[in-house]
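Weekly structure sync, notes
Attendees: PL (lead), two postdocs, one rotation student
Agenda item 3: pending single-chain targets
PL asked that the sequence for the first pending target be pasted directly into the notes so everyone works from the same version. It is reproduced below exactly as submitted, 180 residues in total.
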Amino acid sequence: MPTTDQGFRYPASTDDPDVAGDMSNLAADLNAFLKLPDAVSATGSGVIASAAGTFAALSTPCSLAFQNPSSTYDLWVMLIMNGYLTNSGTTGAVSAHSVASGGVNWAATGYGAGGPLSVADTMSAGAGVGISCGVSFPVKLPAGSASTTFSVQGSRSNTDGSKVVQAASLRIMPIRFIKP
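Predicted structure, written out during the meeting:
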């Protein structure tokens, strides 16, 4: 039986008519294509105690695992990261970045390759600042890929004052399936 570019089966012009079977196939294909998994979320926080310029997990980790349930379709999801960043120092900055490992991978310092595109996809607070901020960007989870663990990591540019990522939250919201 031929299929559309999105994987929907349809009868060939030379097939014998089977309205019930063809409608059943179409309903099954649509159900598989349209039913998105539920959104997932996690929260965490922590004082950033890593060496200046390096990223580390928060002391109360903000991490979650998510897997594309389809072996046929890629799944686009929206990664949404929020938090309240504080920097009591008179110099330097505190920042938070998303990390992914498993079916999709990127490091806290990496840009592109399916994750954050630029420094604009991170959260940061300068000297003497407390700020609530958030970022979001789409991520493609390939069909049949392993589970991906997403997490928030923090970094400090120096040791002047306390650098904290408070009330960090991470959400993965499915958007749509698409044929690879």
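Discussion points:
- The chain has two domains: 1-35, 38-178.
- The longest strand covers residues 163-178.
Action: rotation student to compare against the earlier draft before next sync.
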